[in-house]
Design a protein that fits this description.
175 residues, mainly alpha, hpI Integrase, Chain A
Length: 175
């Protein structure tokens, strides 16, 4: 079961390049858990929206991720456990680990030098650049802060509608 859950988690992580972290699980000096701890209550399939609360984000700001049709198809394929809040629980009931996701890449024949979990975010950024997606939009998709404090004080948009279009195109590209 863990392999199928990890493979499905990998597919959703690739189709939603936003960084999600769980601060309570973050070891000191280590990167936050990414993409493996989707909480079902954060996802609204009817609105095609994943809302990540501030406490799970690196920047401590809520992040709304528009879900493409491809991402929704992955979520529809998941057989949810009613007794577990996570979309991709491991056998212990906790979120699947990054190691489980990484192992899927290895089983697919990718070495650690050829593919990584963070590499999906990098690939997304390159894909956006090659298609001339506005840099502010691609950075917003990745939940990156752009500009200094003054720029951010005046630019309050999240580029949500533009991100919806970008995520849909990214989902089609991955499909």
């Amino acid at each position: 079961m863990t392999c199928n859950v990890a493979a499905t988690g990998w597919a959703l992580a690739a189709s939603t390049p936003a960084r999600s972290g769980n601060a309570s699980r973050k070891p000191v000096g280590r990167p936050r858990t990414r993409g493996n701890n989707f909480a079902g209550g954060e996802i609204d399939k009817d609105k095609a929206l994943w809302t990540i609360p501030p406490e799970r984000m690196k920047g401590k700001v809520e992040h709304r991720v528009p879900l493409s049709l491809a991402a929704l198809a992955v979520l529809d394929a998941v057989k949810r456990r009613v007794d577990n809040p996570y979309v991709f629980p491991g056998q212990s009931g906790k979120p699947i680990t990054e190691t489980s996701l990484r192992n899927i890449l290895r089983k697919l024949g990718y070495t650690k030098d050829a593919a990584s979990l963070h590499g999906f975010r990098s690939t997304f950024k390159d894909w956006c650049a090659e298609r001339e997606v506005d840099d502010n939009v691609s950075e917003a998709c990745l939940a990156h802060l752009v500009g200094d404090a003054v720029v951010r004080a005046y630019r309050r948009t999240t580029f949500f509608e533009m991100r919806k279009e970008t995520m849909q195109a990214w989902g089609l590209y991955l499909s």
